[in-house]
Amino acid sequence: MVNTKNPAKKTVKKKTGLLGIMVADAKVQKAVLARYARYNTTKMRLFSFTPSDIDWERKKITGLHRIDRNWKKGLFPFPDIIYNRCYEVNEDLIDRLEAVMGKNKCFNHINHLNKYEMYGHLSQSLDAFLPETIPYDKKTAADFLTAHKLLYLKPCLGNKGQGVYRVEMKESGQIHIGEHHIQSLFIAQDLSQFLEKMDEYLGSTPYIIQQGVNVRTLVDRVFDIRVLVQKNRAGLWSVTSAVSRVSYSGCFNTSLFEHMYATQDFLQYLYTPEKAQALMLSIHDVSLKAAECIETYGSLHLGELSVDLALDCDDRPWIIEVNGKPQKNLYKHFESYGTAYKLPLEYAHFLRNRPS
């Protein structure tokens, strides 16, 4: 039995493989571990820990685990595999961990993805499915807006649609700027006033400018398609789930959604069954290629990511962005919910048993 008052007194021994789930905050350790443990079909033993729980001198980690139906702290050796669930982890930390554990023993080591870097990786093979994207500066912003009329400005390291601006140049020359909502936050009378206002909004935060796509809507409401792509027990990319989020009326930000549906059902509402099936195949294909591109060209070791797509008025899928730390609570009311938690553990099991 592990002594909870002084967990350092006893070390938990590896038996069938040890998987450490690294989280950013001790407050979420129990909730995160409980979710994954519920769907653990491997024989690996799980524990959760934070970066501050690592004892580098003794090469031990103080972690939370479940034993005899109780949650307890124990002292663990460095695990066989680490599944990173921290959003902004220091790359030096991962390098230090893998120096002890071995290369590629920590997956999703980088999951707060830079949007412009991802655009560069994706454009290697999927340029036809990408809105044109450039780094923000005053000169390029003015030229880009004049050329495309509709733009989205996004922080390079944004999260959940925060700080995203929609910019549209009207035929009158007025420039309408919106945040979350299509309704204008500010109307600039010319390019000079537009750039001055964007300086105020963006400050020194690095931004990208993304060409606006004339997307298909549902009764004037914007919708997107979020595809969860994960590696399976064979170490291969597979599609776990695809859901469609329908925004509130007047919103362009689907992170603020009013309704969510399984994309297969949603597309059958909009199209014939044959057309819906063809679109699903295309969406799956683009999403899988996106995961492969990012991992290959970005030199990243990933086990999962989500791909956000939109359909234009010609039913062509466009990759809007990718997310390195998928929000799995989105799938709570869908059949894929359990699989979303099960597959990272199966992939970890694959990594542990893969020949070096």
Please characterize this protein's 3D structure.
This protein has three domains: 7-107, Rossmann fold; 115-130 and 215-353, D-amino Acid Aminotransferase, Chain A, domain 1, CATH 3.30.470.20; 133-211, Dna Ligase, domain 1, CATH 3.30.1490. The protein is of the alpha+beta class and 356 residues long. Helix 6 (263-270) crosses helix 7 (273-297). The two termini are 34 Å apart. The strands form four sheets. Strands 8-13-9-10-11-12 form a six-stranded antiparallel β-sheet, with helices on both faces. Strands 14, 15, 16, 17, 18 and 19 form a six-stranded antiparallel β-sheet that branches. The chain has a four-stranded parallel β-sheet with strand order 2-1-6-7. It contains eight helices and 19 strands.
